[in-house]
Amino acid sequence: MPDVIIRDPACDWLFLVDTVTRHGTVDDKRREELARLFAGSAVWLEFVSALSTRAQLGPRVDGIAWETVVWVADAPTHLTHFNGSCVFGPYR
Which stretches of the chain are assigned E, i.e. beta strand? Predict the structure, then answer.
């Protein structure tokens, strides 16, 4: 199971959050494990790696899976989306 599961009922998404201190970042293997675990879910799955600082991201960035998101506590209003055509949406 992920460390944290957050449901956004407005858009029917599940945010599956792994903290770097417990599971590490969401790499390809972990993304596949979580996708299988929640395969029966009808909602959109968003895979999130949570870190305390941006400095923690540097040595781990090569292992982060595509189509995942990184959230950093020292910049809580920002997310880094690792590629893909499906992003949260445009700026207003």
Answer: 4-8, 13-19, 44-51, 69-72, 79-81
* Residue 54 burial (10 A CB sphere; 0-12, 13-18, 19+): middle
CATH class (in words) of the domain with range 4-81: alpha beta
Question: Token pair 């020292």 is at which residue?
Answer: 74
Contacts of 31 (CB under 8 A, 6+ apart): 47, 65, 67, 68
The model's pTM: 0.85
Q: Which two tokens stand for residue 31?
A: 């993304």
- The tens-digit pLDDT sequence of the chain (92 residues) is 999 999 999 999 999 999 988 878 999 999 999 999 999 999 999 999 999 999 999 899 999 999 999 999 999 999 998 876 655 555 44
Query: How is residue 72 written in tokens?
Result: 């950093």
Q: How far apart are CA 82 and CA 67, in angstroms?
A: 5
